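Before the break, one more example. Copy the sequence into your notebook; we will annotate it together after we see the structure.
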Amino acid sequence: QVQLVESGGGWVQAGGSLRLSCAASGSIFSINAMGWYRQPPEKQRERVATITTGGTTTYANSVKGRFTISRDNAENTLYLQMNSLKPEDTAVYYCNKAAGIITADSWGKGTLVTVSS
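Here is what the structure looks like once it is written out:
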């Protein structure tokens, strides 16, 4: 079974950059669509970006033009390059499949991103 571990979060000033990684203990090549999600303080989890095995990407309007999602199936790793960070980007970031049923036990610990003003 695929286990997902997020890393790369941290503290950064507004306008700065971070790159998040999502490492899988199993293979993700069989998963057509993967995505990054985030949960700001006191708010519900929301989808940030998705990518298919064919390289097709989608982004939430709030991050469009600033974030870039990528996928390396050979290394079983998903990435999120985050540029021009804003305080409203502060959240716990998670990776998971972006299509089909997502079960409650499939979510990892996530990685915390804190953007100061």
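The longest strand covers residues 18-24. Residues 6 and 22 are 4 Å apart (CA to CA). Try to locate both features in your own notes.
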